[in-house]
Design a protein that fits this description.
The protein has no helices and eleven strands. It is mostly beta strands and about 120 residues long.
Length: about 120
């Protein structure tokens, strides 16, 4: 089992930055596919970004179009932690952000954190 705990959310003005962290415990999840999702009030949860370690220094990342060029997902396998650096934040980025993980691309995201609130004021 993997337990995920997010941190780093908060209130920021438009144009500002935040870095979210997601610490995993329970087992090493360096080989898992890690992702960030978000859910804004009244909306469905949506994919934000994902990262997959392919061995050595090779990582594959993916982003939803609305955050490309502004958000960066990264991971520190030694710390069992995945990050989401969010720059040039917009009010539309306001949401609860969730960390998720799955053992492989063939499986669903079956490990989820409790979420952390990000609020961007205009």
């Amino acid at each position: 089992q993997v337990q995920l705990v997010e941190s780093g959310g908060g209130l920021v003005q438009a144009g500002g930055s935040l870095r979210l962290s997601c610490a995993a415990s329970g087992r090493t999840f360096s080989t898992y596919v890690k992702a960030w999702f978000r859910q804004a009030p009244g909306k469905e949860r949506e994919f934000v970004a994902s990262i997959r370690w392919s061995g050595g220094s090779i990582y594959y990342t993916d982003y939803t179009d609305s955050v490309k060029g502004r958000f960066t997902i990264s991971t520190d396998n030694a710390k069992n932690t995945v990050y989401l650096q969010m720059n040039s934040l917009k009010p539309d980025d306001t949401a609860v952000y969730y960390c998720a993980a799955r053992p492989s691309l063939r499986e669903e995201y079956n490990y989820w954190g409790q979420g952390t609130q990000v609020t961007v004021s205009s």
